[in-house]
Design goal:
single chain; 95 residues; alpha+beta; Alpha-Beta Plaits; 38% helix; globular
């Protein structure tokens, strides 16, 4: 079943986070992920507000998790650590 990778992000270092974004996109695409929302308009109804929200669709939970643990994504993530506060969850789509 397909899955959604959902990230809620507050960027604290724009330059470093820009390098993360530059590397993360190709890593996500290489694992079958496609962005369906990136930083668009949102309404926060509950919980901690993060000004950047990203949703990518993957073929499966396993594909999304493999992407996260891949050397390519981890190299990108090195630039996000210390440059952002974030939460990331993978959710299976039950249709």
């Amino acid at each position: 079943m397909p899955a959604l990778w959902i990230a809620h992000v507050s960027v604290t270092d724009t330059e470093a986070y820009g390098k993360y974004a530059e590397l993360a996109g190709p890593a996500i695409a290489a694992h079958g992920g496609e962005f369906i929302a990136r930083g668009g308009r949102f309404v926060q109804l509950e919980g901690k507000e993060r000004p950047r929200n990203v949703v990518a669709r993957f073929p499966s939970v396993e594909a999304a998790e493999t992407c996260y643990h891949s050397p390519e994504y981890q190299a990108a993530l090195d630039h996000a650590r210390g440059a952002s506060e974030r939460e990331l969850v993978i959710v299976e789509i039950t249709e």
